Amino acid sequence: MGIRRRQLLAGATGLGALAALNPSLVWAKDSKPIRIGAIFPMSGIGAEAGAAWLQGTRLAVEHWNRNGGVLGRPIELVVRDDKYSSSGAVTAGRELATSGVNLIVGACQSPMALGLAPLLEELNALCVAPTPAAMSLTHENYSRNLFRLCPNAYMLYAGLGRMLAQKHPDIGHWATIVFDSEYGHDAIRYFEYGVRSASGGREVTFDRPIYTPVQKTDFQVEINQLMNSPAKGLFCGLIAAPIISFLQQGRSIGLNRKFEVMGESGTDLLIAKALKTAMPDNLWSVSYWHPENPFFSKNALSQQLFKDYVEATDDRYPVGLLTSSHRATQALLSGIEKAGDTDTRAVVAAMEGLTFDTITGPYHIRKEDHQGYGTSVYARVGPKEDEPYYGLNELEVVNDEQTMEPPSPGEAFTLPA
């Protein structure tokens, strides 16, 4: 997943390093770089996901710099490690603000976004968050200085539950395991709602949810509990290293064979890259990018991003998670361009109602609550005999407008009747 020569950009502190990346690009002498903060988990259990998020942001920045930067100025990344924790995100945000960086991509998970959001106005900063799903971010904990550039928990997990229930109408008993966090409680509630709403009146039973700490990596007790359940469907709301550990540990005692179908909340191809031929073939993921699938290969920006990724890494099998931060960075840079300025208030106003290009087509930011929406995908990836030893089996495409709730910033979300 390395960046190789393109890693130079992360440490760039002046125009010389940028010129080294593209000698043909000559900036005006008074063109000071626009400094963008990047807050991702660079250490701890979220480090692998953090590397993917950082890579997506870097590739977006490089694409813009090759095409003249933004407002005629080069873009420079200033990277901070949130250590996969809420307190780490707060510390990183304060460090960036102290160093004069007011425009941020990051706070990728709900605890980090919920920790940083209340401070943004005080810091005179804005944050474009790639993947936090907790509903309160665009409802009771709404901050005008934070933008959510992904489907929320209701959109994602009600959609996943509905899709799995439709594909497996014979499954009437489900089990769930998630983090014990606002995100985890949301995810279970909406997944269950989606399953029940697609049941067509059939009786559906859910086991009592299994909640685990966010930092947990040993799941033997929880796996034994699941193996003793009569459930035939499983929703796993663990993320990053924890879900990989969970699946690895579960495979040794037949967890993937016990359940007819499993759904997971968005670690996607990080799982496949880690497990390879040990990948279960009945796992559906909230997914991001499969560049050789026709849905993506017809999109010019997707083609360019894949070309840039391969050139940067010598790897033809990207982790789709990087596209979420690529989208968030596209949004921020498009907002700066629209505002014609880097002032926080000007960029916030410019991003409200913004439409910009992504690898899945046009993407929109709802003015009222800063909820992003466009096109989402779910994927079933399974083991393969040939390199990279996993591959796409099925892809489901969903229009976010069909799944999103009406805006109600400042008010708690309630499920539709």
Overview of the structural elements:
The protein is an alpha/beta fold. The protein contains 15 helices and 16 strands. The strands form 3 sheets. Strands 6, 7, 8, 9, 10, 11, 15 and 16 form an 8-stranded mixed β-sheet that branches. It has a 5-stranded parallel β-sheet with strand order 2-1-3-4-5. A 3-stranded antiparallel β-sheet has the order 12-13-14, with helices on one face. A hairpin with a 6-residue loop joins strand 13 (361-365) and strand 14. Helix 6 (153-167) packs parallel to helix 7. It starts with 14 loop residues before the first helix and ends in an 18-residue tail after the last strand.
Describe how the helices and strands are arranged.
Blueprint: H1 15-21, E1 34-40, H2 47-66, E2 75-81, H3 86-98, E3 103-106, H4 110-116, H5 120-123, E4 126-129, E5 146-148, H6 153-167, E6 173-179, H7 182-197, E7 205-206, E8 210-212, H8 220-227, E9 233-237, H9 241-251, H10 255-258, E10 261-264, H11 269-275, E11 283-287, H12 294-297, H13 300-313, H14 322-339, H15 344-351, E12 355-358, E13 361-365, E14 372-373, E15 375-383, E16 390-399
Parallel strand pairs: 1-2, 1-3, 3-4, 4-5, 6-7, 6-8, 6-9, 9-10, 10-11
Antiparallel strand pairs: 11-15, 12-13, 13-14, 15-16
